[in-house]
Specification:
The model has no long low-confidence stretch (mean pLDDT 96). The chain has 101 residues and is mainly alpha-helical. It has helices spanning 3-44, 52-68, 73-100. The chain has three helices and no strands. The longest helix has 42 residues, at 3-44. The radius of gyration is 19 Å and the shape is elongated.
């Protein structure tokens, strides 16, 4: 393979990576739209913003899925923990907003 071929192949890989990044952003946006609705439901029914049992189940589930997909389960858990933290923060903000209305 020549350097020119390598540069062309690199451009192809990068286009795919860009497409995957765009898909991830859209998927996360949809996920957060759903979790916003969950946060509103929880707040209007005075339910806690977090659910440790659900979170534990999801972490175990995503670790298993990661192993099946040949993805580092520790990475998957770190990513999910970040998402869960953001969701709980959003739920707390929704609850606080509804209390001031």
């Amino acid at each position: 393979m020549t350097n020119e071929d390598a540069i062309e192949q690199l451009a192809i890989f990068r286009r795919s990576i860009d497409n995957y990044d765009a898909a991830l952003i859209h998927i996360l946006a949809e996920r957060f739209r759903c979790t916003k609705a969950v946060g509103t439901l929880k707040a209007t029914h005075d339910l806690p913003p977090g659910d440790p049992e659900r979170e534990k189940y999801q972490i175990e589930r995503l670790r298993r899925l990661a192993r099946e997909a040949d993805l580092d389960p520790d990475f998957a858990e770190t990513f999910l923990n970040f998402v869960i933290k953001e969701v709980i923060n959003h739920h707390k903000a929704i609850a606080a907003e509804l209390q001031t209305d």
